[in-house]
Specification:
The chain is α+β, with helices and mostly antiparallel strands. Helix content is 61%, strand content 19%. The radius of gyration is 52 Å and the shape is rod-shaped.
């Protein structure tokens, strides 16, 4: 059998190159289509992820706002509790002071002025005693008391025997007043 090749070498070369060019062109089209498809998939995935992210941010923002409101309410309640504790700690039951003072007072004594200075922790008693014995009984009672200390009892208080205008000053032990509850 005889092979006859009527096509020239250059034409064969050109045909071969055209065939390779067509294959490369088809491969390029396929790559471009695949790239576009992947880009579309990635764009859709990005949109879905962005929407999910926005939903999560919105939910956490609502939770944060809600918890911030509760935190501010808790802080406000704690401030009120602290204020009440401070008021209760500063409270001095003065009635116990008067109850203790009343132990040493009899019917012959009357007070026309009782001045209490909380900051200085002092008390000043001014009054009228019908007789000296009642006044001395008051003085000795105050000295025995654990609430009163540093009693200043002027000598002029005992110079008269009856109808005595007296003045007594003393320091107060405020802790002992609170403990006598």
């Amino acid at each position: 059998m005889l092979n006859l090749n009527l096509v020239s070498r250059e034409l064969k070369q050109e045909t071969k190159l055209r065939h390779i060019y067509k294959m490369l062109k088809q491969a390029d089209y396929i790559l471009i289509i695949i790239t576009i498809f992947i880009a579309i998939i990635m764009l859709v995935a990005k949109i879905i992820l962005q929407n999910n992210f926005n939903k999560i941010v919105e939910e956490t923002t609502l939770i944060t706002r809600d918890s911030q409101g509760r935190n501010s309410q808790i802080r406000e309640i704690n401030n009120h509790i602290s204020f009440v504790e401070k008021v209760q700690d500063d409270f001095i039951p003065w009635s116990f002071l008067f109850k203790d003072l009343n132990k040493y007072v009899n019917g012959d004594l009357s007070f026309y002025s009782i001045r209490i200075d909380r900051d200085e922790k002092t008390i000043e008693l001014k009054g009228m005693a019908k007789n000296r014995d009642s006044l001395l009984a008051l003085k000795s009672g105050l000295e025995k008391s654990n609430i009163f200390s540093g009693i200043i009892f002027p000598v002029k208080n005992i110079l008269e025997k009856e109808d005595i205008n007296f003045e007594i000053e003393a320091d107060l032990n405020l802790d002992n007043i609170k403990e006598s509850q």
